[in-house]
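seq:
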Amino acid sequence: MSTPLAPGFTGRPGQTSDRAGFPAQRPGHLPRTPDRDTNQPQRRLREAFGLLGPRRNPHVLDSRRLAQLSLPVGDDGLIIGVDASNQTAVLGLCRPTRLDVVLVGGTWIAQVIALRAAATGARVAVETARPQAWTPMAQAAGGGQQCVTVHQVGRMAPQGPSAASPVLIVRDLGARPPRSRITAAPWQSVLTLVPYLGPTAPRLLAGADVVAVQRVSPQESEVLGKVMGLGAQDVASLPTLSDNVALWCTRKHRQYVMTQATEAENGLLGPARRMD
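struct:
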Protein backbone atom coordinates (compact mmCIF):
# COMPACT_ATOMS: atom_id res chain seq x y z
CA MET A 1 0.00 0.00 0.00
CA SER A 2 1.19 3.45 -0.80
CA THR A 3 2.02 5.90 1.91
CA PRO A 4 0.53 9.38 1.45
CA LEU A 5 3.16 12.07 1.04
CA ALA A 6 1.15 15.06 -0.14
CA PRO A 7 -2.43 15.71 -1.16
CA GLY A 8 -3.06 14.06 -4.52
CA PHE A 9 0.40 12.44 -4.67
CA THR A 10 1.58 9.02 -3.51
CA GLY A 11 4.98 7.39 -3.51
CA ARG A 12 6.62 4.11 -2.64
CA PRO A 13 6.80 2.92 0.95
CA GLY A 14 9.86 4.13 2.75
CA GLN A 15 10.50 6.91 0.22
CA THR A 16 11.65 10.14 1.82
CA SER A 17 10.25 13.55 0.94
CA ASP A 18 11.38 17.13 1.10
CA ARG A 19 9.86 19.85 3.24
CA ALA A 20 7.14 20.60 0.67
CA GLY A 21 5.93 17.01 0.82
CA PHE A 22 7.21 15.94 -2.60
CA PRO A 23 9.47 12.90 -3.03
CA ALA A 24 13.20 13.51 -2.73
CA GLN A 25 13.83 11.03 -5.53
CA ARG A 26 12.09 10.53 -8.83
CA PRO A 27 9.10 8.13 -8.41
CA GLY A 28 9.64 4.84 -10.16
CA HIS A 29 6.34 5.00 -12.03
CA LEU A 30 7.42 8.20 -13.90
CA PRO A 31 9.50 7.87 -17.07
CA ARG A 32 13.22 8.33 -16.56
CA THR A 33 15.48 10.35 -18.84
CA PRO A 34 17.66 7.92 -20.79
CA ASP A 35 21.36 8.04 -20.15
CA ARG A 36 23.18 10.47 -22.45
CA ASP A 37 25.29 9.07 -25.21
CA THR A 38 28.63 10.79 -24.85
CA ASN A 39 29.47 9.97 -28.47
CA GLN A 40 26.56 12.08 -29.81
CA PRO A 41 26.48 15.92 -29.94
CA GLN A 42 24.53 17.33 -27.05
CA ARG A 43 21.97 20.14 -27.14
CA ARG A 44 21.62 22.32 -24.07
CA LEU A 45 18.23 23.20 -22.62
CA ARG A 46 17.68 26.89 -21.99
CA GLU A 47 15.21 27.86 -19.29
CA ALA A 48 11.89 29.00 -20.79
CA PHE A 49 13.36 29.04 -24.30
CA GLY A 50 13.45 25.36 -25.25
CA LEU A 51 16.25 23.67 -27.10
CA LEU A 52 18.97 25.56 -28.86
CA GLY A 53 18.82 25.35 -32.63
CA PRO A 54 21.43 23.69 -34.78
CA ARG A 55 24.81 25.34 -34.86
CA ARG A 56 26.22 26.14 -38.29
CA ASN A 57 29.18 28.16 -39.43
CA PRO A 58 28.24 31.76 -40.32
CA HIS A 59 27.92 32.57 -44.00
CA VAL A 60 31.04 34.19 -45.37
CA LEU A 61 31.15 36.14 -48.63
CA ASP A 62 34.31 36.18 -50.64
CA SER A 63 35.67 39.70 -51.04
CA ARG A 64 35.76 39.25 -54.80
CA ARG A 65 31.99 38.74 -54.85
CA LEU A 66 31.21 41.68 -52.58
CA ALA A 67 31.00 44.05 -55.55
CA GLN A 68 28.19 41.91 -57.01
CA LEU A 69 25.87 42.82 -54.15
CA SER A 70 23.48 45.67 -54.83
CA LEU A 71 20.52 47.19 -53.03
CA PRO A 72 18.04 49.10 -55.19
CA VAL A 73 17.08 52.31 -53.41
CA GLY A 74 14.65 54.76 -54.95
CA ASP A 75 14.04 58.40 -54.18
CA ASP A 76 13.04 59.23 -50.64
CA GLY A 77 10.04 61.45 -50.13
CA LEU A 78 6.33 62.01 -50.44
CA ILE A 79 4.54 60.56 -53.46
CA ILE A 80 2.91 63.44 -55.32
CA GLY A 81 1.89 61.49 -58.43
CA VAL A 82 3.32 60.03 -61.61
CA ASP A 83 5.33 61.67 -64.36
CA ALA A 84 4.91 61.48 -68.14
CA SER A 85 6.67 58.08 -68.15
CA ASN A 86 4.24 56.74 -65.53
CA GLN A 87 7.06 56.67 -62.99
CA THR A 88 6.46 57.62 -59.37
CA ALA A 89 7.22 61.27 -58.62
CA VAL A 90 8.28 62.08 -55.07
CA LEU A 91 8.95 65.26 -53.12
CA GLY A 92 11.31 65.18 -50.13
CA LEU A 93 9.39 67.25 -47.59
CA CYS A 94 10.84 65.67 -44.44
CA ARG A 95 14.52 66.46 -44.70
CA PRO A 96 17.39 67.80 -42.60
CA THR A 97 17.66 70.89 -44.82
CA ARG A 98 15.16 73.67 -45.37
CA LEU A 99 12.65 73.45 -48.22
CA ASP A 100 10.40 76.26 -49.40
CA VAL A 101 7.65 75.26 -51.85
CA VAL A 102 5.29 77.60 -53.69
CA LEU A 103 2.16 76.10 -55.22
CA VAL A 104 0.25 78.21 -57.73
CA GLY A 105 -3.01 76.32 -57.79
CA GLY A 106 -6.06 75.21 -55.84
CA THR A 107 -6.72 73.86 -52.38
CA TRP A 108 -7.35 70.30 -53.61
CA ILE A 109 -3.76 69.44 -54.48
CA ALA A 110 -2.44 71.24 -51.38
CA GLN A 111 -4.74 69.17 -49.17
CA VAL A 112 -3.69 65.94 -50.89
CA ILE A 113 -0.07 66.80 -50.08
CA ALA A 114 -1.00 67.66 -46.49
CA LEU A 115 -2.84 64.36 -46.01
CA ARG A 116 0.04 62.35 -47.41
CA ALA A 117 2.55 64.22 -45.29
CA ALA A 118 0.49 63.41 -42.19
CA ALA A 119 0.30 59.77 -43.29
CA THR A 120 4.11 59.58 -43.31
CA GLY A 121 4.28 60.78 -39.71
CA ALA A 122 4.81 64.51 -40.20
CA ARG A 123 2.89 67.11 -38.22
CA VAL A 124 0.97 69.50 -40.48
CA ALA A 125 0.17 73.03 -39.36
CA VAL A 126 -2.07 75.13 -41.60
CA GLU A 127 -2.14 78.92 -41.39
CA THR A 128 -5.18 80.12 -43.29
CA ALA A 129 -7.69 82.92 -43.60
CA ARG A 130 -10.41 80.43 -44.54
CA PRO A 131 -10.48 77.78 -41.81
CA GLN A 132 -13.79 76.44 -43.14
CA ALA A 133 -11.87 75.00 -46.11
CA TRP A 134 -9.34 73.15 -43.94
CA THR A 135 -11.08 72.20 -40.68
CA PRO A 136 -13.07 69.20 -42.04
CA MET A 137 -9.92 67.72 -43.55
CA ALA A 138 -7.94 68.34 -40.37
CA GLN A 139 -10.57 66.64 -38.22
CA ALA A 140 -10.69 63.58 -40.49
CA ALA A 141 -6.95 63.28 -41.10
CA GLY A 142 -5.71 61.99 -37.76
CA GLY A 143 -8.29 59.33 -37.01
CA GLY A 144 -8.64 60.77 -33.51
CA GLN A 145 -5.11 62.13 -33.30
CA GLN A 146 -4.34 65.79 -33.87
CA CYS A 147 -1.76 65.48 -36.63
CA VAL A 148 -3.20 68.39 -38.69
CA THR A 149 -3.89 71.67 -36.93
CA VAL A 150 -5.51 74.83 -38.31
CA HIS A 151 -4.34 78.27 -37.13
CA GLN A 152 -5.57 81.81 -37.68
CA VAL A 153 -3.42 84.26 -39.58
CA GLY A 154 -0.43 85.28 -37.47
CA ARG A 155 -1.44 83.00 -34.56
CA MET A 156 0.80 80.03 -35.28
CA ALA A 157 3.35 79.25 -32.57
CA PRO A 158 6.77 77.68 -33.28
CA GLN A 159 6.27 74.00 -34.03
CA GLY A 160 9.56 72.59 -32.71
CA PRO A 161 10.54 70.36 -35.64
CA SER A 162 13.00 67.51 -35.22
CA ALA A 163 14.14 64.40 -37.03
CA ALA A 164 11.69 62.35 -34.97
CA SER A 165 8.85 64.83 -35.51
CA PRO A 166 9.14 66.68 -38.85
CA VAL A 167 6.72 69.46 -39.67
CA LEU A 168 4.99 70.73 -42.81
CA ILE A 169 3.73 74.32 -42.64
CA VAL A 170 0.96 75.12 -45.13
CA ARG A 171 0.25 78.82 -45.71
CA ASP A 172 -3.06 79.49 -47.46
CA LEU A 173 -3.31 83.27 -47.31
CA GLY A 174 -4.44 84.33 -50.76
CA ALA A 175 -2.50 85.93 -53.58
CA ARG A 176 -0.67 88.33 -51.22
CA PRO A 177 0.55 86.21 -48.31
CA PRO A 178 2.18 88.33 -45.60
CA ARG A 179 5.63 87.56 -44.33
CA SER A 180 5.80 85.12 -41.45
CA ARG A 181 8.24 84.70 -38.57
CA ILE A 182 7.93 80.93 -39.00
CA THR A 183 10.01 79.98 -42.00
CA ALA A 184 11.52 76.86 -43.54
CA ALA A 185 14.13 75.17 -41.37
CA PRO A 186 15.74 71.76 -40.95
CA TRP A 187 12.91 69.19 -40.64
CA GLN A 188 10.36 71.93 -41.30
CA SER A 189 9.19 72.56 -44.85
CA VAL A 190 6.87 75.37 -45.87
CA LEU A 191 4.26 75.10 -48.63
CA THR A 192 2.79 78.44 -49.67
CA LEU A 193 -0.43 78.20 -51.66
CA VAL A 194 -1.39 81.09 -53.94
CA PRO A 195 -4.50 80.85 -56.15
CA TYR A 196 -3.00 83.04 -58.86
CA LEU A 197 0.00 85.27 -59.44
CA GLY A 198 -0.35 88.49 -57.49
CA PRO A 199 1.96 91.47 -57.06
CA THR A 200 4.20 89.56 -54.65
CA ALA A 201 4.53 86.54 -56.96
CA PRO A 202 8.02 87.40 -58.28
CA ARG A 203 9.36 87.62 -54.73
CA LEU A 204 7.72 84.34 -53.71
CA LEU A 205 8.90 82.47 -56.78
CA ALA A 206 12.42 83.82 -56.51
CA GLY A 207 12.75 82.65 -52.91
CA ALA A 208 11.25 79.20 -53.45
CA ASP A 209 13.27 76.02 -53.76
CA VAL A 210 10.48 74.27 -55.68
CA VAL A 211 7.57 75.77 -57.61
CA ALA A 212 4.45 73.86 -58.63
CA VAL A 213 2.05 75.37 -61.14
CA GLN A 214 -1.42 74.16 -62.01
CA ARG A 215 -3.43 75.59 -64.88
CA VAL A 216 -2.99 79.37 -65.16
CA SER A 217 -4.00 82.05 -67.62
CA PRO A 218 -1.82 82.82 -70.66
CA GLN A 219 -0.75 86.09 -69.04
CA GLU A 220 0.33 84.33 -65.85
CA SER A 221 2.11 81.71 -67.92
CA GLU A 222 4.20 84.41 -69.57
CA VAL A 223 5.22 85.80 -66.17
CA LEU A 224 6.12 82.35 -64.93
CA GLY A 225 8.14 81.71 -68.06
CA LYS A 226 10.28 84.77 -67.40
CA VAL A 227 10.74 84.21 -63.67
CA MET A 228 11.36 80.45 -63.86
CA GLY A 229 13.16 80.43 -67.19
CA LEU A 230 10.60 78.16 -68.87
CA GLY A 231 10.74 77.30 -72.53
CA ALA A 232 8.13 78.30 -75.08
CA GLN A 233 6.56 74.84 -75.03
CA ASP A 234 6.04 74.94 -71.28
CA VAL A 235 4.63 78.47 -71.44
CA ALA A 236 2.11 77.31 -74.03
CA SER A 237 1.20 74.16 -72.05
CA LEU A 238 0.41 75.72 -68.68
CA PRO A 239 -2.98 77.21 -69.69
CA THR A 240 -4.11 73.79 -70.97
CA LEU A 241 -3.28 71.53 -67.99
CA SER A 242 -5.88 69.19 -66.53
CA ASP A 243 -7.21 69.74 -63.02
CA ASN A 244 -4.93 67.08 -61.48
CA VAL A 245 -1.74 67.98 -63.39
CA ALA A 246 0.93 70.44 -62.28
CA LEU A 247 4.36 71.47 -63.51
CA TRP A 248 6.92 71.00 -60.73
CA CYS A 249 10.12 72.87 -61.41
CA THR A 250 13.32 74.29 -59.99
CA ARG A 251 15.89 76.47 -61.64
CA LYS A 252 17.44 73.42 -63.33
CA HIS A 253 14.74 70.77 -63.57
CA ARG A 254 11.06 70.59 -64.48
CA GLN A 255 8.58 67.76 -64.53
CA TYR A 256 4.88 67.40 -65.24
CA VAL A 257 3.17 65.35 -62.55
CA MET A 258 -0.34 63.93 -62.49
CA THR A 259 -1.69 63.55 -58.97
CA GLN A 260 -3.94 60.52 -58.61
CA ALA A 261 -6.03 60.62 -55.45
CA THR A 262 -6.72 57.45 -53.50
CA GLU A 263 -10.24 56.26 -52.74
CA ALA A 264 -10.02 57.67 -49.22
CA GLU A 265 -8.74 61.02 -50.51
CA ASN A 266 -11.53 61.20 -53.07
CA GLY A 267 -14.11 60.48 -50.40
CA LEU A 268 -12.75 63.24 -48.18
CA LEU A 269 -11.72 65.91 -50.68
CA GLY A 270 -13.86 65.15 -53.70
CA PRO A 271 -12.64 65.02 -57.30
CA ALA A 272 -9.63 66.96 -58.51
CA ARG A 273 -10.28 70.63 -59.24
CA ARG A 274 -8.27 73.70 -60.05
CA MET A 275 -10.66 76.34 -58.71
CA ASP A 276 -12.10 76.29 -55.18
